[in-house]
Amino acid sequence: xxxxxxxxxxxxxxxxxxxxxxxxxxxxxxxxxxxxxxxxxxxxxxxxxxxxxxxxxxxxxxxxxxxxxxxxxxxxxxxxxxxxxxxxxxxxxxxxxxxxxxxxxxxxxxxxxxxxxxxxxxxxxxxxxxxxxxxxxxxxxxxxxxxxxxxxxxxxxxxxxxxxxxxxxxxxxxxxxxxxxxxxxxxxxxxxxxxxxxxxxxxxxxxxxxxxxxxxxxxxxxxxxxxxxxxxxxxxxxxxxxxxxxxxxxxxxxxxxxxxxxxxxxxxxxxxxxxxxxxxxxxxxxxxxxxxxxxxxxxxxxxxxxxxxxx
Length: 311
Description:
single chain, alpha/beta, seven-stranded mixed beta sheet, five-stranded mixed beta sheet, 10 helices, 12 strands
């Protein structure tokens, strides 16, 4: 059984509930187009958070987590991003703890799309007992009828890592345990790729473009970070680095910090964007559930997004 694990942000962090639900339905249109049927989806959401009607393959794991600090309460973009990663990690941890350690689990954001071939490929790959990552994918700007191919996708988008829970830090002792370090690992796709892929050798690239990253929409947490980096002095690299250094407790963490910065920079420099590709019938069928905005009025969500951005 292949599991999609989808953390749903706290309702106080959802700017537009209608837009959020529409994007989630579009993600599920992508999931339901899978050529293999042996999959399920687990959403981790706060008690009382209203979700749209979802297919039978979906279940909801309810939690009672407080929202992370608001943008205005965080002192730096680095602190705000860390708080978001912790919140995401807690939600993923709550959902993954009861999944069998050997199962395949894709950590999936609530507004992206994946290839209809992804589950079938992973379940049929008998040569490998580890996880996978999306190396080649696409970026779709909100409202666009085209996508842009991109390499090193795993460093760009959270919907890019497929793990076997047994390979996670929280299983390093053999039994499940959740502490601050393991929660942060699970909530940060870059750290997951470094730890599982590069250090442990437990991730392989999927050999075809297999996900689409939605960008340029007002429900994204990246917009908060962009605003903060634009409107405060913390937008400078030196200030962000200094704030991160201030939290380091020993020389081991300092060395790890330097290595991680080098790792992120290396993959950003290697990322290649291709020529824009119109979303034809083949792409629509593979990634978007057979239609660009399956189950919805064409571009209704994108028009709403543009209104919110303008306002």
